[in-house]
Amino acid sequence: xxxxxNIHKTFNPGTIxxxxxxxxxxxxxxxxxxxxxxxxxxxxxxxxxxxxxxxxPVDEGTIEIDGVDVTGLCEYKRAAYLGRVFQDxxxxxxxxxxxxxxxxxxxxxxxxRGLKWGITKEExxxxxxxxxxxDLGLEDRMTAKVGLLSGGQRQALTLLMATMQKPKLLxxxxxxxxxxxxxxxxxxxxxxxxxxxxxxxxxxxTHNMRDAIVHGNRLIMMNEGKIILNISGEEKKNLxxxxxxxxxxxxxxxxxxxxxxxxx
Amino acid sequence: MSFVSLINALPGDVAQGVIWGIMAIGVFxxxxxxxxxxxxxxxxxATGGAIAVxxxxxxxxxxxxxxxxxxxxxxxxxxxxxLHTLLGIPGILAGILTQIAxxxxxxNILGGSNLAVNxxxxxxxxxxxxxxxxIIISVIFVAVIIGxxxxxxxxxxxxxxxxxxxxxxxxxxxGININLMKVIALALSNGFVxxxxxLIAQYQGFADINMGRGAIVIGxxxxxxxxxxxxxxxxKRMNFVLRLTFVVIxxxxxxxxxxxxxxxxxxxxxxxxxxxxxVAIFLAVPYLKGQSQNSFRKAGKRGxxxx
Lengths: 264, 307
Description:
Chain A has helices spanning 45-53, 75-78, 99-107, 121-134, 151-163, 181-198, 209-214, 233-237, 241-252, 259-263; strands spanning 2-11, 19-29, 34-39, 60-65, 68-69, 82-85, 169-173, 202-205, 218-223, 226-232. With 264 residues, chain A is of the alpha/beta class.
């Protein structure tokens, strides 16, 4: 479903701020695979997601989604294949537009936007039921501006927007990191549910080792722009946080120095 | 300085306000919907006036001349949009470049620095000689334009433009071509501005190379005055049609205020200074209000009194 071959990305090349962010990443995801991505700060987790999303072109390598080579497609064109939820709850929605208008924008992802009415009656009905399933009471506030919602509500809405048209690939970039623990758990539950129900191929970046172990059927760990660990199947099910820390030290030769990942 | 002369000037102020209100709707489109401070308008307003007058003098019917003015405005907006999106020039600078370029273009269109069109010799749509008719026709123009705006910004494409103005990152993630949307919005906005320029030229009976100077500030004044008044009158029941209506009302109020200022015998040379001060105050007040509710000095005082 997704195939990334030998991608490289260096930021600010030739300057004092030069940073090799991706250094030869290969990754293939089969349909329905749900991979969690962990690693220290600056390991290249979010950079990998952004490379797939097409936020900027990669320096080298190819990216295929659903058999289509998207390496040369810019971000808005690639959006047709992707559903994305970001770390910052403000990023995924348009604050000054209504809840239903945001959903209508997402419903037209990858389609041409012409002079037809931006939202139809049937759509509103459909959105009502979709929002009701979220169980956050948003179905009764469909004409409220999204800016009035809490961070958790906005993330849940962004998740719905990302998945209402089944994407070929769902990209979750630490999408619960900015939420309080309880809200984060709610949003993660909703995420798990929607992925299972639709059998979505998913990449989820997280700082939280426990989340990375509990969720998904595959786990990759990154360090210095490379995938240094790739665990799936039974092995992943029996994984503990201690195992991960050991493996990290083993493979990278350094200690995993990220308090957030260890403590949570 | 009799009160009667102030009242007598009122219909003229209203007529000018309504016509400039069309221009203000264009400014609203870029400034509020697209979140883009577009300085092209100072140039495109005069372009619209120049094209309209030149064509009317050639015997073209006024409505068609206005349509042509709209078209040239669209082209001007297109240039700014392409300078910004294709060549990566920052928005404000892209607008200034087009505006400066239009100064030469406008001189060429006019064949000089101004050009008169006499309402007695040519069938003009609006004129300061016939104020009731002028007001009625201008209001019809405004109503049609508000109707078009309401329809367009309810469509898929218009919604996409609103999303771009609101959150570009989200728009890209939802597959919206934000550069295309910016260019479309700038073109449409300058089309309305140039149309307004065509009406202004007919109203005053001439097109002038400097007729657009400071237009952006007048447009902003109308937008902001309209918002303050609209907020005070309808509050939370504000909708898109009302917002646009209040922009036009803002322009009318602006011209009434200018009428009062002139009546007070303030030197006309100081008008632009006066306008700039008004706009600066209206732009600053919401910011200062927020600051006063959220200030370190007050927090310090509160902390002191609690001890």
